[in-house]
User: Fold these one by one.
Assistant:
Number 1:
Amino acid sequence: MLRIFVPPGSSLMRDSKQVKIKFGSPGKVAIVGVPWDWSTSGRPGARFAPQTIRRYLFSLSIYSPSRKEALDVEFEDLGDVAIAPGDPKISFSRIAEAASEAYKRPLAVFLGGDHSITRWTLEPLLKEGKLLGLLVLDAHYDMRTVEEGMTSGSWLWDLLTAYGDKVRATVIGIQDYMNPGYLAERAKEKKVDIVTRDEIVESLEPAFEAIDRLKAVGADYYYISIDMDHLCEACAPGVNSPSPLGMTPIESYRIIKYAARSLVPKGIDVTEITPAHDLNDMTSRLAAFLIAHAIHEVFLGAKG
């Protein structure tokens, strides 16, 4: 019998047999929102992205026809980090504390926020003193030094400066004409494995080979950071720094799928979405799909 009333915001599609993402406590996947964007020097608003991404992620069906199985793991939404607006010291400390709690689960997923959050979501893993393998999808090196203020474009330099040989980093998707030249020298100095956007136009093999090299270091933990500005702005317009010739969603999907199953990361984040600049939430929706695929591959990889 049809009901006269349904909960506010419910879908008009009433299919009782469709199973969506399950929630439990404790869950196998911890979800943490990180609404920080005070490091942004471009288009602010990434602080509003966690809830937008959640809306699409939690609306997905769990069945994957391509894998012929369901994403049958329970999610535990820990909520958003209690950011202290404009106060980086308190906020970054709380991000690290929240990450530490999230890592008690088999997989932690962080919804940013600008890309500077990654410096602090990684902090608990690095404080253990173990080797970290870091894969970043980004149009930028994020290894700047600014004369004053803060920028989300410096987090990787800060991380590598603080932890040195405890981090092996690979960045895929670096764009032409979007980075100052000195950053390439910094990447070389810190032994960051760089794959440019241009290198994978014809084939994704250079990206897959870079992931294989990262796996070969035998890190104690792996982590995947997805800056949504690595994607073409036609597919991901709602980002801090749009990329006209960025990667296609299919290219990103294939790279993330390969990396997630191969590396079996302890953590994944998605950053730099600015909902106010988006078109019909297409960037947040794409992020939700990439996250779902990544999570599924992590658990398939964990099974061997």
Number 2:
Amino acid sequence: MSTITIVGAGSWGSGLSLILADNKNLVKIYDLDKDLIKEINSSHTNERYLPGSKLPNTIVGYTDLKSALEGSEVVLTVVPTKVMRQALKSVNEALDHEVVFVNASKGIEPVSFKRVSEIVFEEIAPEKIKGFVALTGPSHAEEVIKRQLTVVSSASDDLELAKFVQVLFNNDEYFRVYTLNDLIGAELGSSLKNIIALAAGILNGLGYGDNAKAALITRGLAEMRRLAVKAGAKEETLFGLTGIGDLIVTATSLHSRNYQAGLKIGSGKNLQETLASMTMVVEGVRSCEAAYQFAKELHVEMPITFAVYDVLFNQREPKDAIKELMQRNLKSE
């Protein structure tokens, strides 16, 4: 049994807390939202993010970070990447011992193009980090909280740490975990797929069908692979759970907030209206900005990503962006 502190009590933080509690670990979950923590402790529910669900009553919620971190062996970050640096600064200040950092958020930082692992090593003092693992793959909290079958990867540059986290989260009944020794590929794949999921929603909002979506997923994967490999990832990682697996579930599921945001944009809403109507963070918007900048710097061709960027940030009409994609010079696959 291990003691784990989860930073972020949203849908995925709560979903992962269920798995860890089912696996007989001591689970502490921290959040700034006092009402949410009170609900978790008193009712063992999270109606805002996972309505109708029930959390194990062994999970304890905290609003005091120092108390939440006390005695923990693992810190699991599940906050939007937009606030990741600030959250880690707070963790670094409150933490007084060495822990394994596990991240389950998916995104890239604009301008710096930093992955979450890189941000962790920048913001946490070296003596407080035993290592870093990304827990990622095709997974929706809405299904995990119902203990539906899910398979993900535990990715790290340290294979022994990846195996430790694999055992920590693996549940023989409903949650299977593979190890992966390609942190760059895992982090980039799970971030870039959100851009393609936005595009998939836009297509559906415009009324296009399965043919278009299949082409989008296939060509989107090619773009993901090009950028990830140029950044140092292993090509085969993009054909695994953290690449095509995560891409499929995010670009085709109604649970996907990125798909839902794209659907609203394709139906006529602008970016600001769309984000204002969403109850959860749409990581694909920020990842699109970062990928656009990163691809330009690395001279990587990513026409779909660039088209999504134009729709999001330059107010281009989605149909015009699609028309330009269809009229590009003919080439071999």
Number 3:
Amino acid sequence: MTDSVAGLPPLREVIAKHGLAAKKSLGQNFLLDLNLLDRIARVPGPIEGAAVYEVGPGPGGLTRALLKAGARVTAVERDDRAMPALAEIGDAAPGRLTVVAEDAMKIDEATRLGERAHVASNLPYNIGTALLVRWLTLEAWPPWWLSLTLMFQKEVAQRIVAPAGSDAYGRLSVLAQWRSTPRIALELPPQAFTPPPKVSSAVVHIVPAPAPAGVSAAAIGAITAAAFGQRRKMLRASLKSLPGAIDALAACGIDGERRAETLSVAEFVAIAAAWTAAKR
């Protein structure tokens, strides 16, 4: 490879040169440690020649690491201040970086990319969970993404991988686990970032798994939204707002006096399947 990404100036110099102080309004916390960034870029496995989608690259630290690993990167950034820095990275890796100046929440990724891609991103805190839920609740499966390697606040990461019955277990756990496999790949302290956030962070890696037959993402979404929307209540109360859900609960032989956090992912899938079948 003839590009010169490794020869780019230190990220702190880039931030100073382009006036890229992190903006709280954009949920920005920049990771500047190149060794940590290289470790994150390795989480998806070999990505040489692969398409990678990145949201919120900022000064381009992770972008550099992904390009060094040989990926072709499409980076979505709404902060105009970052464009000159990202252009310099693009010049160092000719033909392998596409920068999209749009709102990531409004992009049709499958159409934009035109191929299946890995996602790797230090997600802006203010849209991270919303983006993840959107990617997890696509009806088309396997999805457009090959894997998700995403930075979250540690508390959110723990919710994604939490087992049933644990304090962190909730709707996000079920959405992440019913047809994909999540794991925490890396934990990072606040001081790894500029500016340091008030909480620790973690990188979550998620890969698609076979989807259960007869269950739609819409059904899982509706059942979990109702069940965890009033998580302190028994299921017979929390699911009452969803026509047919109580009957589905009975059809699965699940006690209506249980609470949402006690149900396994498989039990939520069974309820969604019974609810879907009853409506046909």
